[in-house]
Amino acid sequence: MIANYRRVEDIGAISAENELEYSASIQILADTIRENLNPVLPLSSETCIYRVPEVLRRVSESAYTPKLVSLGPFHRDNGSLSKMHVHKRVYLKTYLEWYPEIKLESCLEALRGIEGRARQCYAEFINLNSFQFVEMMLLDGFFIIVFLIKFYSPERRGSDPIFDTMWMSWIIEHDMILLENQLPFFVLELLFNLAPDSKHDDTYPDLFDMTIQVFEGLVETNATPNTIDRSKVKHILDLLRGCCIPLSPVESPQVDRMSKVRYSVTELHDAGVKFKAGVSGSKCLLDVKFVGGVLEIQPLCIEDRTEPFIRNLIALEQFHYPNQAYVTSYAVFLDNLINTPKDASLLIHHEIIENCLGDHEEVSRSIKNLAKAVLADGSYFSEDYAKLEAYCKRRRHKWMTSLRRTYFHSPWAIISLIAAVFLIILTLIQAICSIISL
Fold it and tell me: How many domains does the chain have?
């Protein structure tokens, strides 16, 4: 290929002397470009695993990069993650020992049968031959499955360095929710279902429910699993997103491009808006309701995994769900509400945010960073924004709030106000009586 370009340069040097050779050089260049286009495949309908764009990665590199284990091809050659290769082989051996009926050859044959479909799930050309790709799916797939089983059923752990040191299992959980670190869910299900029916001994549920249970700290385990179409789940991150989005998704939540909350939590509070943790009749994280001056928001636990989890959900939506970007809208909603640590403190006070980071300023910073460099064309919360805007524009709400906080903030303030009013009335009566007696 390089030789072809050199040939074009050589011919170009004499093109003025020989028009025929100039035409030949154009043909060589066209053939070279056409040859370079061959590896560039169009995205398939199966595509669901993407590289995080640099514009998002620059905001928080650590939120998108695995710390301990590579899963899938994108970080396979990262030398700092190579130590986990031993654990992957140990977990494969463990699973085959749990179920001796499973033959390694059968696993490889089954994976070879879906190799083409699995490759199409990645949004770029995977430079692995067939043997390498199948081995990767085998080792990474069984590593995920055995990790989930051991996490869910501690009695199956035995002597395992991953679970004997809590930090390792915690970091692996982090690595499993990264967009770039995913295996197609149908690959995991194929390997999981190779085990005989005897595995259903109440030790652990099916792969779908077990995954949700393992990540219960990030999603509501009893909120939406029955409403998710299992056949459409792309990978673990996609499954967890399904546990967060509304039960009845709207096809295009971006109603108003310019809609946003124009008031922070503190400003809303000063305008008389009351805050309530939890939305009546809902457990969906993204549900928000503003009725009768009360803003109901589902509780959100802010811990070390929260920011990378929401960031990777946003990255997935930017690629795969541009017309159903619910988590993106939610992040922008929080970003608009929280501008200072005082805003975060008010939501923490009303138990809408559970602060597991310790520092209110850190909570504020974490939430403010979620929406950085994010493209959000409108919002799923446009209707709520409009209601809040209309409420805050009414001056009487601010006046009533100021009156309550100035004169009715404590029993003693109320007593003082009543005494002052009573004194004024007595003074007026005395003045009137004096006038009449004249």
Answer: 4
Cα–Cα distance, 302 to 300 (Å, whole number): 6
Q: What is the mean pLDDT of residues 35-41?
A: 63
Placement of tokens 């059968």 in the chain: 106
Dihedral sign computed on CA atoms, order 351, 356, 361, 363: negative
Please report whether residue 251 resides in a domain: no
In angstroms, the CA 286 to CA 70 distance is 30
Same domain, residue pair 299 and 368: yes
Q: Which domain holds residue 17?
A: 2-37
Calpha distance 390→313 (Å, rounded): 31
Q: Which of 105, 102, 101 is nearest to 113 (CA)?
A: 105
**Is beta strand 274-277 parallel, antiparallel or unpaired with respect to 300-302?**
unpaired
287 and 179 part of one domain: no
260 within domain boundaries: no
Mean pLDDT of 194-216: 79
Find the range with the poorest average confidence among 97-101, 119-123, 151-155, 429-433: 429-433
Q: What DSSP element (H or E) covers 426?
A: helix 411-437
**Hey, what are 223's tokens?**
């909120």
Q: State which amino acid sits at residue 124.
A: E
Note whether residue 248 is domain-resident: no
- Rounded to an integer, the average pLDDT of 184-199 is 87
* 320, 434: one domain: no
